């Protein structure tokens, strides 16, 4: 798929994407994910079967509501700082990231062959933050962030991903670095910020400030917001045309803060239909929204409810 305007989500095509992969795998499927990393599942037949069953649930939702499908690789932790904890060096991570794209391309072929799935299936390489995704941690410059994330993005590009999506970013600098690196390897890229309960990024920027700051230096193809409850996102939506740059949301089921979620021993999955009602208010505030999915605490039930509410208008 060619970069930029040829991405269907940029042309108004609605795309279903998945929910909170890691929380679903841990709490609903009983898997142990060291370092909260799902990518090791690609190494074995059983792990791939679990992942395929996971993605199949979202393909079924897309077919039901007549939307396209955005498949995100299970590589949120497949970067050097996290990979080393699992014993994976740079070569191993390159293979993992390439393999993840190839794996999803195979699922795309299977889904596209189904008469129920008539709209596009897009494969995106998932980039995670260098830190833990909830706190800022050690600040890096955009150039440092670009150098750090470039190998993963290059692996996605080499494997034929349609784009990369950087999820749960906490700082403007890291977002700029991801975009710079993606442009270096000629890969379309989307950037997703996470928000605190007050609607601001963990680095203190308002969402508006962050979007405008990144766009001023290195504009991604579009922005998303993830790992925050719809109420938290709504608190950060200052008026202005900048909202049109946000094409996707992947919300949490829980209203808890990041610190509370980190400390929680049980999953706060809320009520799928209540979340769908709250997402509908958020959708109404984002005129360009085309990508809709979930994050921590959500699964196919939540995403299906959100899409059914969305489909019903």
UniProtKB/TrEMBL annotation:
Entry-linked Pfam families: S-methyl_trans
Binding locations of Zn(2+): 227, 295-296
Required co-factors: Zn(2+)
Record field: transmembrane: none
Top-level taxon in the UniProt lineage: Bacteria
Matches recorded under InterPro entries: HCY_dom, HCY_dom_sf
Record protein name field: Homocysteine S-methyltransferase family protein
């Amino acid at each position: 798929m060619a970069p930029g305007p040829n991405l269907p989500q940029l042309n108004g095509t609605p795309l279903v994407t998945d929910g909170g992969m890691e929380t679903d795998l841990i709490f609903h499927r009983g898997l142990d994910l060291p370092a909260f990393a799902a990518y090791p599942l690609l190494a074995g037949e059983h792990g791939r079967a679990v992942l395929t069953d996971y993605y199949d649930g979202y393909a079924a939702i897309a077919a039901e509501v007549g939307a396209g499908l955005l498949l995100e690789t299970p590589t949120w932790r497949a970067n050097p700082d996290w990979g080393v904890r699992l014993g994976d060096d740079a070569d191993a991570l390159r293979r993992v990231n390439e393999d993840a794209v190839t794996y999803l391309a195979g699922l795309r072929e299977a889904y596209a062959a189904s008469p129920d799935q008539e709209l596009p299936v897009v494969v995106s390489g998932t980039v995670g933050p260098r830190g833990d995704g909830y706190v800022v941690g050690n600040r890096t410059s955009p150039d440092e962030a670009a150098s750090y994330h470039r190998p993963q993005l290059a692996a996605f590009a080499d494997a034929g991903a349609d784009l990369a999506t950087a999820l749960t970013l906490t700082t403007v600098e890291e977002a700029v670095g991801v975009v710079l690196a993606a442009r270096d390897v000629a890969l379309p890229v989307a950037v997703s910020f996470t928000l605190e309960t007050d609607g601001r990024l963990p680095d203190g920027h308002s969402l508006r400030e962050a979007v405008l700051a990144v766009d001023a230096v290195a504009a991604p193809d579009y922005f998303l917001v993830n790992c925050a409850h719809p109420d938290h996102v709504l608190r950060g939506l200052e008026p202005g045309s900048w909202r049109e740059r946000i094409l996707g949301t992947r919300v949490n089921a829980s209203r808890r803060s990041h610190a509370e979620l980190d400390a929680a021993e049980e999953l706060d999955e809320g009520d799928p239909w209540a979340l769908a009602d709250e997402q509908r208010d958020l959708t109404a505030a984002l005129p360009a929204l085309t990508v809709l999915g979930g994050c921590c605490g959500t699964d196919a039930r939540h995403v299906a409810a959100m899409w059914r509410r969305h489909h019903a208008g």
